Amino acid sequence: MERFKKIILKILKWTGISIASILFLMFILPILFPGTISQQVKIFANKHLAGKLDYKKTHLTFFRHFPSLTVSVDNLVLQGSKPFQNDTLLTAKEVAVGINLKNLIFNREVKIDEIYVTDANANVFVNTKGEANYNVYVSKPSAKPKDSTEAGASIKLDLIKFKNWNIRYNDHSARVLVDAKGLNYTGKGGLSEDIFDLQTNLDIDKVDFSLNRIYYAKQKTLHADLITRINTNALTFVLKKNELRINELPLKFIGFISILKDGYNMDIKAASEKTTIREMISVLPPQYLDWAKDTKIEGNSDLYFHIKGRFSEPKKIKPRAKVRLLVKNGFVSNGKAPVPMNNLNMDLNIDLPSLDANQLGVDVKKLSFDLGPNNNFRAYIKTKGLNEMQVNADIKGAVDLQTLDQALGLKDIDIRGLMDTNIKANGIFSLDKKLFPKTNGYLHLKNGLVKTKYYPNPIQNINLIANIVNTDGTFRSLGVKLDPFSFDFEGNPVFVNADLQDFEDLLYKVRAKGVLNVGRIYKVFAKKGFDISGLIMADLSLNGRQSYATTGQYSKLDNKGTLILKNIKATTEYLPKSFFIREGNFRFENEKMWFRKFLATYGKSDFALNGYLLNTINYFIERKGTLHGKFGLNSNYILIDEFMALKNGDNTDKSIEVEYAKVENPKSSGVVIIPKNLDVSLEVNTKKVEFKGLMLNHLKGNASVNTGEVYLKNTSFDIIGSRMNIDARYQDESPLTANYDVSLKVQDFDVQRAYKEIDMVREMVTAAKNVKGIVSLNYKLKGDFDKNMSPIYPSLEGGGIVNLRDVEVKNLKMLSAVGDNLGAKAFDNPDMKGVNIETHIKNNLIHVDKFTFKVSVLRPSISGTTSFNGLLDLRVRVGLPPGGWIGFPIVVTGTHAKPKIKIFSKTGQGIIDALYNKKSNKVIREERRAEKKTRRQQRKEKEAQEQKAKNAENRINKELKEK
Question: What's the CA gap between 872 and 887, in Å, rounded?
Answer without folding.
Answer: 22
